[in-house]
């Protein structure tokens, strides 16, 4: 395809009602009328995925992942069909395609599949006929022909992957916010919109809880060199460009504060302090496709034993506990404790590479507000702490002010 192609992705809040779907259709038609080839990737209507998942859990505590994928994929199919119908009603020819019809092939990991390849020949032929392609995001098909899904926020990944495969000029992520902010403006009133942010910073912000973009989509955009833009679905205002670091003229020491309430803490007390025990703990979790985030090992009150604390997502808590309890005798821990009332708060910025004292400033600011830090993890451009969930908003406002990010 030529660089005349633009990929547009619309999230669930952008498609939350028939009126909103009509609004999206007008935006898509405007781009096509301006001479652009347009491929649209859609999420399920707001609340639809949660509704379907709740139904599954009413029938089973641990619904089969294959059947869950088949169930959840219906939400995006509905959105793609409705948007295509709306476009036709406005005199804009469009064709709706499922992930399978789009040629999006994944591995066999149900509910968290990864994209292996895309055969977009059918979409290319449709675009050549001056039709808009409306693709159901979040889904694909494995080698056995089973429907798979890409995990929460997977429509972002679908959009970036398709933009890369088709050589699109840009991938526009339309959402309910008008860009990327220094912090969640719903919590921190003085948060500022960023005109540009680096791939690395956006990747850290996404992985640490900022819900503007999905982590894997940013990772793929950085790897494939896809230019991303975060825009509002409802206002015609400038958004935020996600770019290479060399496009940022002056790097801020801290660019943003991210948070995630989708965290749960697991502590194994009285684990034998000997080689191989960590593999026994994290092996079953890896086998269950459960991602572990923050990890800290403490000295136990028992001689020759240690306490190990780590975090998983809320969705994985029940599975993680079940997996560890099934291996209790092999691992040899004394007690398993879990806590879902925690939140992760992260300070992020590429400028942290060349500035000392960032972590110390964070710890001092939180201590002055009486906020206890439970777990700490760091990377080259990020410092994250785990705190009690009740202190989330106070921590965000405190750190936003401490690092001079408040709007004047």
Tell me about this structure.
This protein is of the alpha/beta class and 408 residues long. The protein has a domain at 5-176: Acetylglutamate kinase-like (Carbamate kinase, 3-Layer(aba) Sandwich), CATH 3.40.1160.10. The protein is 36% helix and 28% strand. It contains 13 helices and 20 strands. It has helices spanning 18-33, 48-59, 65-89, 99-102, 121-128, 154-166, 199-207, 215-224, 277-287, 314-326, 328-331, 358-368, 392-402, and strands at residues 5-10, 37-42, 94-97, 104-106, 115-118, 132-136, 139-141, 147-149, 170-175, 180-181, 193-194, 196-198, 228-232, 240-243, 256-272, 295-299, 305-313, 335-348, 375-379, 382-388. An eight-stranded mixed beta sheet has the order 3-6-2-1-9-13-14-12, with helices on both faces. Helix 1 crosses helix 3 (65-89). The radius of gyration is 22 Å and the shape is globular. 45% of the residues are buried. The model has no long low-confidence stretch (mean pLDDT 91).
| Class from helix and strand fractions | alpha/beta
How many H/I helical runs? 13
CATH third-level topology of the domain at 5-176: Carbamate kinase
CATH architecture of the domain at 5-176: 3-Layer(aba) Sandwich
Q: What's the layout of helices and strands?
A:
Layout lengths: L4 E6 L7 H16 L3 E6 L5 H12 L5 H25 L4 E4 L1 H4 L1 E3 L8 E4 L2 H8 L3 E5 L2 E3 L5 E3 L4 H13 L3 E6 L4 E2 L11 E2 L1 E3 H9 L7 H10 L3 E5 L7 E4 L12 E17 L4 H11 L7 E5 L5 E9 H13 L1 H4 L3 E14 L9 H11 L6 E5 L2 E7 L3 H11 L6
Parallel strand pairs: 1-2, 1-9, 2-6, 3-6, 9-13, 12-14
Antiparallel strand pairs: 4-5, 7-8, 10-11, 13-14, 15-17, 15-18, 16-17, 18-20, 19-20
Helix pairs in contact: 1-3, 2-3, 6-8, 7-8, 12-13
